[in-house]
Amino acid sequence: MLLTDKFGRAITDLRISVTDRCNYKCVYCRTGNEGALYGDLPFPDYFRMARILTGLGIRKIRITGGEPLLRKGLIEFIHELGQLRDVDGNALDLALTTNGHLLAEMAQPLKDAGLRRVTVSMDAVDPDRFSRITRVPGGYDKVLAGVRAARRAGLWPLKVNCVLMRGFNEDQIIPFGMFAREEGVILRFIEFMPLEEDRVWAPNTVVTLEEIISRMGEYRPLVEIPHERSETARRYRFDDGIGEIGIIAPVSHPFCGHCSRIRITSDGKIRTCLFSVWDHDLHELMARGSSDEELSNFICDVVQKKEERHHIGEADFVPASRTMVHIGG
Ligand code: SAM
Q1: What is the per-residue pLDDT across 195-210, written as a single tens digit (0 to 9) for each?
Q2: Which atom of ligand 1 is least distant from the CA of 192?
Q3: Is residue 135 in a domain?
Q4: Could you tell me the residue range of the domain that residue 99 belongs to?
Q5: For ligand 1, atom 17, which residue shows the shortest CA distance?
Q6: Which residue, among 139, 137, 184, 179, has the nearest Cα to 162 in the 3D structure?
Q7: Measured from the CB, is residue 17 less than 6 Å from ligand 1?
């Protein structure tokens, strides 16, 4: 039994949020206050979910949060996930998304534990601007050290995610292009989505794919790299072959028709879409003593409810029941 939804999309990609705590308060994600928490689960519970889902066709697991590096025991958890095999007997593609604040010390242990690759979120290449966005002083140097440590440890491909939000960092497009070339990282610009705690999203806050390409073109010409239809990012390289830029454009160029993802929140709920207005309590079922078979059947039923697409910017848009930090991006 392999997971396929009612629109024929194979579900092969799982994101597990291991905490909804975060040490940053990025303007496009969180509110400036501490905010309420849903909490997290012991690692053996996430591991059981991952094991069952792997048996149903999951091939790639991305660990996220909140900020996953805040969780004690993460290295051991990654090591355990590294022992799982997909339905064809291959090792899983294990990745992690982090704000990078604690990565300098953890990059090598994560690699040694079996992590393949890492994505670091970084929304400015200027220390002051960086602090204005994260609302935490002094993070830039730590994150830069984290990016460099990840590269040294061989966590590859090493991607840097930048969410562009008008009024905060759209002037960072070219500096980021230079940064990608100098640091040897793959850059991913992400269009701002209405998933933030402060509900400040409006269509004109989104810096779109077209605008990013046009701005970057003023620095150096970009050449599009052919991409798989299932890839979320449109990929480009500079004309001299140095530096790769990707643009994830869920708002201006939605890719829901190729979505292969489901998510598990830090409190053990399955979410079938970032924009779901409900979630499905896998952990409660586990806590009631359900067998692996019962949990598998539940997951297969839930996947049938996966939404066809999001409705960002449309008159019938209903905000998601959780914000990004409590979903796991
Ligand atoms: N703390 C980790 C980090 O900073 O990467 C992992 C969790 S964070 C929620 C995951 C990703 O979601 C980050 O790359 C972040 O930039 C992105 N993100 C958060 N809010 C977003 C929004 N409203 N629109 C687009 N991307 C968002």
Answers
A1: 999 999 999 999 999 9
A2: 24
A3: yes
A4: 13-327
A5: 329
A6: 179
A7: no
